[in-house]
Amino acid sequence: MIAVIQRVSEASVTINSAIKGEIGKGLMILLGIEDADNQEDLEWLTKKIINLRIFPDENEVMNKSLLDVNGDILLISQFTLHASTKKGNRPSYIKAAKPDFAIPMYEKFIFVLEKEFGKSIQTGEFGADMKVALVNDGPVTIIIDSKNRI
């Protein structure tokens, strides 16, 4: 799993001109799933996201987690995170999981993330044409790949 995590002061996702999800201060997460992902990747990434200390403390040092600042999460599925651009100019998405595997993994990720986080999160809609808007706070953007954890 690949996650692009952005610290935001606000973020939203719109589908067919209707807002599907929106948050204030928190994390906007783009999530890419591949066929090699499993429950261990899901749990590891969830813990990493929840405990990532990227919010400022009273000295403006990034020392607080999402839990510490009582922030929110907007999670968006994005298969293009697994794009390969090694050959030619048209990206290949061969590594991205197909919907029959990716949708259940995405739904499990939501369940585990909400359980670990202790509250509901906002989401987009898997496979939909989504318009994502955000104000990146900092800016702070972190990329985490569950396959590169060692």
TrEMBL record:
Keywords: Cytoplasm, Hydrolase, RNA-binding, tRNA-binding. A motif (Gly-cisPro motif, important for rejection of L-amino acids) lies at residues 138-139. It is found in: Cytoplasm. Belongs to the DTD family. An aminoacyl-tRNA editing enzyme that deacylates mischarged D-aminoacyl-tRNAs. Also deacylates mischarged glycyl-tRNA(Ala), protecting cells against glycine mischarging by AlaRS. Acts via tRNA-based rather than protein-based catalysis; rejects L-amino acids rather than detecting D-amino acids in the active site. By recycling D-aminoacyl-tRNA to D-amino acids and free tRNA molecules, this enzyme counteracts the toxicity associated with the formation of D-aminoacyl-tRNA entities in vivo and helps enforce protein L-homochirality. PANTHER family: D-AMINOACYL-TRNA DEACYLASE 1 (PTHR10472:SF5), D-TYROSYL-TRNA TYR DEACYLASE (PTHR10472). This is D-aminoacyl-tRNA deacylase. It comes from Belliella aquatica. The gene is dtd.
